[in-house]
Write a structure and sequence with these properties.
The complex is a heterodimer of chains A (about 350) and B (about 110). Chain A has an eight-stranded mixed sheet with strand order 6-5-4-3-2-1-7-8. In chain A, helix 3 links the parallel strand 1 (about 55-60) and strand 2. Chain A contains 15 helices and eight strands. Chain A is of the alpha/beta class and about 350 residues long. Chain B has two domains: about 10-40, no CATH class; about 40-110, AhpD-like. Chain B has helices at about 20-35, 45-55, 60-70, 75-110. In chain B, helix 2 packs antiparallel against helix 3 and helix 2 packs across helix 4. The chains are: A alpha/beta (about 350), B mainly alpha (about 110).
Chain lengths: ~350, ~110
């Protein structure tokens, strides 16, 4: 019998996995099949300590509030989360963004559009001539009238839209993201297509994200992209640019899911067995900094959720120091195996 | 703990068959790997065929392995179930087509 899973955030439920320390303890207890820690694996390949190569991307998490409660969410986002970036903190981000080395701003959440200052923030970033990515969950566009014009807003600010659609059919999409999400996502995609997103020569980029809806790794990104393009085009006349295949990391609600299904050990062993040194050399944390809603700096969004701040003194926006950040050691733990499995995984899909 | 003839974890030990006959084991796994590479058929189509055959040969290891492989490669539940129906149709057809042999024999034996 299938186990009925809750649809509130771990934090709301006061679940023990809402505590990053508990998660880290679980991740650190290496299973008997996992002979090496991630740090040891990197050492074998001459990559430890893992060092940054640049800060091309500033990924800003503008809040954990979301209109969806996806089962695999590493942020533990949901309507019951109240952590939201203030305009004051956004101003600090804008200050940091004056640095010409940072070419791309990657806005994420939660649903970033639910931040009351979201539009103002995007417009200010646009004035700085930065490439803007918004990780939009698609259903936000139809969730409320006030969001219906988001496609036009994105277009005006030349935003690259990156949206999760784990599968091209309702069953598996809804199983991961909630009942009715597929139907609303299709409407959102059609609205984006209508203003030119994902259309050839429009210059408006619409990329989709495929997260496996379960305890397995994604397959070849290019092959999946072909299937997605055929199915979405045939079924709903939808077009998009690229598909990013992203591995689920054993963090937060996906970690909970693995425990509920008694798949944790198997999944971790699968990640470890699929370790790819080429992917390890290209992990996204080497070229980005993640900023939390309250202005702290992390190596990536996953480390942010595990409260593993960047090494060194420059740990928040106010003390942002490019030179120091570039000389830091990136903090790794067992969850990092998720970014190095198979063809690797990043916010931009596979890396190897 | 109950003992069974099939242990899930044995699937992960498949490669160990080479320990007692390395040459043939290597040949088999090389061949196996080549068979499942994309060719005239895509890797996804091959996984669906493998899923159907897994049911026909009733191999629990193969069923586990190719269920996961089909999901990974983007096949949906309907396609996976239809593949199994193909196997079932061939299996049941193979039984029923022998009914002709039974009829032939019965007719010969009867007046």
């Amino acid at each position: 019998m299938a186990v009925k899973e809750k649809i509130k955030s771990l934090k709301y439920r006061a679940h023990q996995l809402s505590d990053p320390k508990v998660q880290l303890e679980i991740l650190s207890n290496t299973s008997e099949n996992m002979v090496k820690t991630f740090a040891e694996k990197l050492t074998d390949d001459g990559l430890f300590p893992l060092k940054p190569v640049s800060i091309e991307v500033l990924q800003i998490n503008v809040g954990y509030m979301c209109n969806q409660v996806c089962k695999h969410c590493h942020v533990d986002a949901g309507p019951d989360r109240k952590e939201i970036m203030t305009r004051e903190t956004m101003l600090l981000c804008l200050d940091v963004l004056k640095n010409p080395a940072i070419s791309t701003v990657d806005l994420t959440g939660g649903a970033p559009e639910m931040n009351p200052d979201f539009r103002w923030f995007v417009e200010e970033i646009y004035k700085l001539n930065k490439h803007i990515i918004v990780r939009s969950n698609l259903t936000i566009i139809t969730a409320n009238k006030k969001y219906n014009d988001l496609p036009q807003f994105f277009k005006k600010n030349e935003v690259e839209v990156v949206s999760s659609l784990p599968y091209f059919a309702a069953r598996r999409t809804d199983a991961q993201r909630g009942e009715g999400v597929f139907e609303q996502s299709i409407k959102g995609l059609q609205m984006l297509n209508e203003v030119g997103y994902g259309k050839a020569d429009s210059g408006l980029t619409l990329n989709l994200v495929h997260n496996p809806s379960g305890a397995f790794l994604p397959d070849d990104q290019n092959e999946l992209e072909k299937i997605f393009k055929d199915k979405l085009s045939d079924g709903w006349g939808i077009t998009f640019n690229s598909l990013f295949a992203i591995t689920n990391l054993p963090v937060s609600r996906f970690l909970e899911h693995l425990f509920v299904r008694e798949m944790y050990d198997d999944y971790l062993v699968e990640l470890v067995n699929a370790y790819n040194p080429i992917a390890a050399a290209s992990v996204m944390c080497r070229s980005m900094i993640s900023v939390s809603w309250d202005g702290f700096l992390y190596d990536c969004d996953f480390n942010q959720m595990l409260k593993l701040k960047v090494q060194g003194k420059a740990q928040d926006l106010k003390s942002f120091d490019e030179k120091e950040l570039l000389s830091r050691n990136i903090i790794v733990n067992q969850h990092c195996y998720g970014c190095t499995a198979g063809a690797g995984s990043s916010c931009g899909g596979t890396v190897a | 703990m109950s003992k069974t003839y099939y242990n899930e974890e044995d699937l992960g030990k498949f490669g160990e068959i080479s320990e007692w006959q390395p040459e043939l084991g290597k040949k088999f796994f090389d061949y196996y790997g080549s068979v499942f590479k994309p060719g005239a058929l895509s890797a996804r189509e091959k996984a669906l065929i493998a899923l159907a055959v897994s049911h026909a040969v009733q191999c629990p290891y193969c069923i586990d392995a190719y269920t996961k492989d089909c999901l990974t490669k983007g096949s949906d539940e309907e396609q996976m179930m239809e593949a199994i129906h193909v196997a079932a149709a061939i299996k049941s057809g193979a039984v029923l087509v022998h009914g002709v042999q039974m009829m032939n024999k019965a007719k010969k034996l009867s007046m």
